[in-house]
Design a protein that fits this description.
Radius of gyration: 33 Å
Distance between the termini: 94 Å
CATH topology of the largest domain: Rossmann fold
Strand order of the largest sheet: 3-2-1-4
Strand content: 5-15%
Largest sheet: 4 strands, parallel
Order of helices and strands: HHHHEHEHEE
Number of domains: 2
Shape: elongated
Number of helices: 6
CATH architecture of the largest domain: 3-Layer(aba) Sandwich
Amino acid sequence: MAAGRGDRAADRRQDDDGFRPRTHAARLRRLGLEYETLASARSLTRRLSRLLVAGSEAIEARLLSIEGARGILGPAHRTYAGHSAVENRSVWTGWDWSARGNEWNDGTDPAAWKESLVRDVLLETIPAGGVVLEVGPGGGRWSEILQARADRLVLVDVTERALDLCRSRFAAAPNVEYILTEGGALPGVPGGSVENTASVPESR
């Protein structure tokens, strides 16, 4: 029995002096390999994620462009985070409207650019007369053209600030109405009551 206990003690010493360090080294090697594998996988995942985000943004931008060209407020615009009612209300309530929306142009001569947009877009797509709904009038830059063209112009915005600017600008115009919306509905605008809809992104 004593010899047996001595053998086991020797085995433990051998385990302590020999096998355990080797086992620990092997474990460290395994952890190192696992770390490298996971680090590589993380790097690949991040690259794929960036590619997916870039692809998604490109698709979203194209959908927004197509909806804009078609003159519709489609799913892409309704779900676009940058166009959310909360975001728009925050941005445009605090905006400096001293230029009344004329701070935007495509980099060319502002007067020529505005004239071409009025001639080639507004006058081409919005017939004279009838009821026109403008979404997001901003400082009223394009509302001015629409007001003179429509029998009745309904201006809809998510911020009272923009509507107040338009009220001041068109105070003498009896054919303009103003509606504040939360972004998901058009209160006070019955279905079928509007002949034409306008929403010019550059008005913002």
